[in-house]
Structures are given as structure tokens and as C-alpha cells.
Amino acid sequence: MKLLHTSDWHLGRTFHGAPLLDHQLAAVDALVELVRSAGVDVVVVAGDIYDRQLPSGDAVEALSYALCELRAAGARVVGIAGNHDSAVRLGFAEPVLAAGGVSIRGDLGTIGTPVVIEADDGGPPLAVYPIPYLEPEVARHRLGLPDARSHDRLLRAALARARVDLAARGGPGAVRSVAVVHAFVAGGQSCDSERVLSVGGSAEVGLDAFEGFDYVALGHLHGRQVLGDGRARYSGSPLAYSFSERSHVKGAWLVSLDGSGRVEAEAVDLPVPRRLAVVEGTFDELLASRAFADAEPCWVHAVLTDAVLPPEAMARLRARFPHAVTLVHRPPIDLTDGRMRYAERVQGKSDLELALDFVAHVTGTPADDAERADLVAAMASAAAFAEDGS
Ligand SMILES: [Mn+2]
Fold first, then answer.
1. What is the CATH number of the domain that holds 48?
2. Do residues 2 and 41 make contact, with C-beta atoms less than 8 angstroms apart?
3. Is the same domain home to 189 and 311?
4. For residues 190, 196, 198 and 199, what is the CA-based torsion angle, rounded to 10 degrees?
5. What is the pLDDT of residues 158-193, one digit of tens each?
6. Is pLDDT at 336 greater than 60 in this prediction?
7. Ligand 1 mean position to 111 CA, how many Å?
């Protein structure tokens, strides 16, 4: 049987303010095409389907489109709520949708009840165990473990429920099994676009928690990766959601489970509607140098190394890089000025000396005669103002 493992769609997310929905829909279309060309039985979406608890109308429309298209292409769909999703909203009318072949689970009360897909290869059926994201403060009460506060303990309890059902079905050999989980599993590599699951305590779950399942479809980490012996994998997000992902290859896992539950997973890549580029140099270099021509159609993060940030820098950069979205100014001087405290550095200096120091500090060169004269005049008029109070 064939399973297509994807996650972290984050429908409705923007990229530093730029809308991404068209790119997300292109990823959906590519997944639909894969379902058709590879004869996929079930598409598994391992959480963070929406980017936020209250998705926009456009994002809801995109999910409706995705579910209908995947189903029309011949696959069942099984999804779970991630830490970005509202479990209640995502799980809306689940039993009714499930009758139509689409199960998006948010309700923790359903943990241990699989979505069973009958085989068409003569082998045993496939039981998919969706385990929605377990937020400890909610999950410990819903799972009847009020003292459990760690992600590890709660996920193990949830998986134990799934194992009880699995054993009742005759266990390995009688059924092929997949767990769908949204969690941070020990050994996983994170990047800048995942929201941390636990501020303070550890959110890590040990890989040994997943013993007994033929395949574990993980969501949460946005880089595609393989854990342990390869039965547990992250599909990663279909698109890059931060510049830290510019070396990622985005895609999904096309997983084949044979009659005995043996797994073969093939990486399938998704289209890259717009690449990411980081460009660094002076403003003039960025605007003129041919070295940056490749970055013109990309999402661009610009690092400006001029001593002084040019006015309207971002707007002017966009004349060449229309998709420039972030800019940092990194002047070639040390603004920290050693370890001297501010009070020590300014001690015994006149106002004019302080102002001249400031100019040198910010521009990297001492004030010239004209600038010095301007400062002297400005200070004289400020002093006159302070004296006569007018
Ligand atoms: Mn995510």
C-alpha cells in the first residue's frame, strides 16, 4: 500500500509579510499529481495544517480545495491538528467527513481509534493512528493523567492507547500500522520557522516511544529528515518558511508498506516557486554588481555593509530585487567600543567632543571641517535657546 507523508502546510502563512497562498496551492497541486501518478492510497498530513488557530477565509478555502482534490485523485486523507492549529476547528464534523474518506482529527478522545484502510494488494489492512498535537496543559486532563506534564510522558500514554487497539486487531502481521504524530522527537534538526513547543522544560520525546508501529509520520520540524532506522521520519514543510531553510530540499515521503509491513520510503520533491537568497555588500554593490544577478527573482535577505544606512534602502533595493523582504544593516565598525562602560567613555568630554565622537563612531570617519562647523553652530544655538528660554 502507498502512503504519501506530508506535514506543516501552514496554510495562510506569509513570508515576512508577503502572501504565500499561491505557492502553497502549487504544492497542493503537486501532491495531487503524485497521488494520481503513484496510485497513493492515503495522504497523511502530520499537523500544522493551518498557520493559525483562526485561519483566514482564503486559507480555509485552500484546505477545502486540497481535501477535495486529493480525494478526487483517489486517496483517503488522514490529518491531525498541530501546535499551530485549533483542534476544535480543524476537527469540525470529523465523523461526517470521515464517511467521505477524509479524517482530520483534533479531538484527543479519539486517540487509539484508527482510520482503517482496506488493502487492495491481498495483504492485511492498514490502520492509521492519528494522534493530534498534545499540549500538556490540555492533554494531561483529557488523557486522565493530571500529573503528567512532559510531552514525552503524554505521547507515550497516547501511543499506548493505539497499541492496545493494534494488539486487539491481531498485531503485526494481521494489520499494517502507521502512527501520525506532531512532536519534537529527540535527534531531530530544527530551524527558525518552528514555534518552540515548550518554554522552559523539554519538549523532546524519545525515539523509542514509537516501538511497534511499521511507520511513524512525524510533523513539526520543517526540514525533511529520517530518524533512527528509517521507520520514523519528518516530511518537513512543503515550502521554506524562513531563510534558515535555504539549503532544504522541500518535499514529502512516498512510503510503500508491503504485506508484512516492511517500509520503503522515497523522497519526492515539491516545486520551488521562489528560491531564497542572502545577499551581502554595500548598497552600491547590491544594486550594480552582476554577482547578485541570480538573486533577482528570489526572496531576498539583504545585509548592507555601508557605514551609513542609505535612505529608503529597502524601497530602492526592491527596484532590483522585487522580492526583497528583510534587510539588516551591518556597518564595518565596532559599535560596542570594547568593554568600557558608557559613563567611563564620556567622562570629562565636552558636548562638542561627544558629538564629534558620535559622528566618527556611526560613519567610521571623523567629521570634516564643514560638519564640525555645523555642529559648533548647532550647539551654540542650542545653548542660546537654553539660556534665554525662548
Ligand atoms: Mn510547523
1. 3.60.21.10
2. yes
3. no
4. 120
5. 999 999 999 999 988 899 999 999 999 999 999 999
6. no
7. 21
Distance 3 CA to ligand 1 centre (A): 20
Quote the ligand 1 centre to 183 CA distance (angstroms).
10
Distance of CA 222 from the midpoint of ligand 1 (Å): 6
* Domain presence at residue 335: no
In this structure, is residue 204 part of a structural domain? yes
Rounded distance from Cα 282 to ligand 1 centre (Å): 35
Beta bridge partners of 280: 303
- Among 249, 269, 289, the domain-final residue is 269
Q: Which of 19, 110, 28 is nearest to 64 (CA)?
A: 28
Residue identified by cell 516511544 is 209
- Tracing cell 533512527 back to the chain, one arrives at 228
* CA dihedral sign, ordered 148, 130, 108, 49: positive
For residue 246, the 8-state DSSP code is T
Ligand 1 centroid–CA 50 distance in Å is 9
> Can you spell out the DSSP letters for 52-113?
SSS--HHHHHHHHHHHHHHHHTT-EEEEE--TTS-HHHHTTTHHHHHHTTEEEE--GGGTT-
How far away, in angstroms, is 112 Cα from ligand 1 center? 23
Q: How do the residues of the chain divide into helix, strand and coil, expressed in percent and rounded to 5?
A: 35, 25, 40
Q: Are residues 282 and 141 in the same domain?
A: no
Are residue 17 and residue 157 in the same domain, yes or no? yes
So what's the pLDDT on residue 183? 97
Cell of 300: 531576498
CA of 138 to the centre of ligand 1 (A): 19
